[in-house]
# Entry
Amino acid sequence: MAPLKRRLLPFAYWASTWAMRLLLRTFARWEVVGADRVPQSGPIIFVSNHVHIIDPPLVAASAHRRVHPMAKRELFEVPLIGWWFWLWGAFPVRRFSGDMGALRVARNYLRNSEVVLMFPEGTRSRGAGMRAALPGAAMVAVLAKSPIVPVAITGSRIRIPAVFWQWALRRRPHIRVEFGEPFVMEGHRADSKGAEAATDAIMRRIAAMLPEDYRGAYGPGSEGTVIVARVRDRNANEAEVDASSAAAQAAEAAEGARAEE
# Structure
């Protein structure tokens, strides 16, 4: 059974990834920048902003190495979808809590020279710009001493089935994934203060790769302040984000339409 599982998991991953690439090339103007910056071997932590539910397979499709995404535990509890996530090589995390089990899984993948994908915001920004990040990804980076590759995603906030109408009207959304230069967290202690400072440093690297309206908590005026999520009221955050998401999405759609003309 174990040999069959070892053969089946890579097949399921690459079949899903190639299917995602086909969908992206068909229904979007998909742009990948900096893929050559990703090391060909060795442990890597991809740390990305989080715009849409498609972001994990989007980053995987944009990279040339197999990726193990950290995903919210609730997805693994959905019939069929949860099974596919396990088969795809993702691993669950309890969001908004110190899930040490998930952090250990991430560190084990890194010890095996594999690639881990993490979204420190803990949830999607829904068009309102980056949220204050949780320190889990930074703690893994500090403990594992593995290279970090910042990833910046724009344009992935699509709607289904509206994206199919956009394709029919030749107004495909412009989805862009950029990989930054690898770096290693140095000079940060493996404690709460060190993780908070490392979190802020990582997120500012991502923000520097994003347009200003995507930077959110790490935008202009936040310089000199360590921005990190300590206690998050999810309901309040969702209400705040939804108030501005419609305007952000409309602006993004207008930009895509102008680019097509």
